[in-house]
């Protein structure tokens, strides 16, 4: 008995019929109802917080309040829909707009233009409060706050350190290095100095040179994740913080707001992310067929790696991955694609140890994963050369991919897991 599956590839859909008895899992996210009244949800979160007094008791008239907000690379957080509600809550608690400052948590990303501030935070917010940008290479903007137990000297933006109260905002999703985004990431890398960011990010690399990446720095893992634990220490150096983070539905709407204690409330949000996007599986499969879900999630390989990283969590060590990734903008972004010019994974790793970047880390991890488990990518014909340079097998049809996969598995009775929206769903192996 064959079962039909329809998978996204760019703007199109591709069909495949698979033997039903061989399909052990179809991994899909949980349907969740979106929040209808966002201002009411924000009010409820900040007045009934987790592990903290309510916001009106945390702040008092006369306080200078800083709101840390993510930059343009996190535009999906939809700040214009909830920042005005947060400002209104602060106003009601006795803090006028003139005493509120928004700090853009650029990390080491480039500065925003004025127009981009409007684009990311909305006209109302930009019109009401002062906005400053925390740009990691500007060393004069950062002050020393201490050293972590792992020896990383911590420098945090002076506007944040000097504020009476700090509200950390952001969105919680799975993160390929820190386990989960949001929470403490508003501080590091968000408003941290360059040397602090580099010191923290190097924990993602294996402690032994030549061994590649740290196996504990991965999606959904917090315990034993050195990067997460170190950035949590850094964030805890600030004693005057309050959290407001959003969790999203699979369609990108607000599913929940968590507020309160910067770690405890964030952890509750992580549990909600796991409930929505974490999918329990009972066994790994010989073959994983994964689609990002089509455009724009497969616009380039950098975005496409979210699909392959999740797929590898569902495949056996001696298995094969087929990923449907159109990648119409294959050379974007340049700070990712350029990393495949290194002749070997070792050279890529050494360069990364000298000057860590997240795109470089993703490029190294992609190469290491493809070396361990063959990755067959269904993509555009013009992407063949680039994919092969990245250590991937490029084909133009799903039929061709299946033929290569069967050849590599060398048998007909292989098990299959299908991931129709693999960019957003994380397999959680039980037991």
From TrEMBL:
InterPro entries listed in its UniProt record: LarA-like (IPR048068), LarA-like_C (IPR043166), LarA-like_N (IPR018657), LarA_C (IPR048520), Ni_dep_LarA (IPR047926)
Lactate racemase C-terminal domain ranges (all copies): 283-422
Domain LarA-like N-terminal: 10-206
Source organism superkingdom: Bacteria
Protein's name in the database: LarA-like N-terminal domain-containing protein
Species in which this protein is naturally found: Sporomusa sphaeroides DSM 2875
């Amino acid at each position: 008995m064959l079962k039909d599956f329809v998978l996204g590839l760019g703007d199109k859909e591709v069909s495949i019929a698979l033997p039903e008895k061989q399909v052990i899992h179809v991994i899909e996210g949980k349907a969740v109802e979106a929040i209808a009244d966002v201002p009411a949800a924000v009010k409820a979160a900040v007045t009934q917080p987790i592990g903290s007094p309510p916001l009106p008791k945390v702040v008092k008239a006369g306080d200078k309040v800083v709101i840390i907000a993510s930059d343009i690379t996190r535009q999906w957080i939809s700040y214009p829909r909830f920042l005005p509600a947060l400002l209104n809550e602060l106003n009601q608690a006795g803090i006028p707009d003139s005493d509120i400052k928004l700090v853009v948590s650029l990390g080491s990303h480039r500065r925003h233009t004025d127009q981009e501030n409007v684009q990311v935070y909305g006209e109302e917010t930009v019109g009401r409060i002062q906005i400053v940008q925390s740009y990691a290479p500007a060393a004069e903007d950062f002050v020393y706050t201490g050293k972590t137990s792992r020896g990383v000297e911590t420098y945090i933006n002076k506007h944040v350190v000097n504020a009476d109260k700090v509200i950390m905002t952001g969105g919680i999703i799975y993160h390929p290095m820190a386990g989960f985004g949001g929470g403490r990431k508003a501080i590091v890398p968000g408003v941290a100095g360059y040397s602090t960011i580099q010191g923290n990010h190097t924990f993602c690399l294996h402690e032994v040179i030549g061994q590649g990446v740290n196996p504990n720095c991965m999606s959904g893992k917090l315990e034993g994740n050195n990067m997460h634990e170190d950035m949590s220490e850094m964030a805890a150096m600030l004693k005057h913080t309050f959290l407001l983070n959003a969790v999203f539905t699979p369609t990108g709407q607000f599913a929940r707001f968590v507020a309160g204690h910067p770690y405890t409330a964030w952890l509750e949000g992580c549990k909600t992310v796991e409930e929505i996007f974490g999918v329990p599986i009972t066994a790994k499969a010989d073959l994983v067929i994964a689609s990002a879900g089509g455009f724009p999630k497969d616009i380039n390989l950098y975005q496409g790696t979210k699909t392959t990283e999740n797929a590898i969590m569902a495949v056996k060590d001696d298995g094969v991955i087929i990923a449907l990734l159109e990648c119409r903008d294959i050379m974007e972004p340049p700070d990712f694609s350029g990393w495949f010019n290194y002749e070997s994974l070792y050279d890529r790793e050494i360069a990364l140890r000298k000057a860590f970047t997240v795109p470089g880390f993703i490029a190294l991890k992609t190469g290491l994963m493809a070396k361990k488990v063959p990755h067959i990518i269904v993509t555009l014909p013009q992407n063949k050369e680039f994919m092969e340079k990245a250590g991937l097998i490029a084909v133009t049809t799903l039929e061709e991919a299946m033929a290569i996969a069967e050849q590599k598995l060398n048998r007909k009775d292989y098990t299959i897991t299908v991931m129709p929206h693999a960019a957003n769903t994380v397999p959680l192996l039980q037991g």
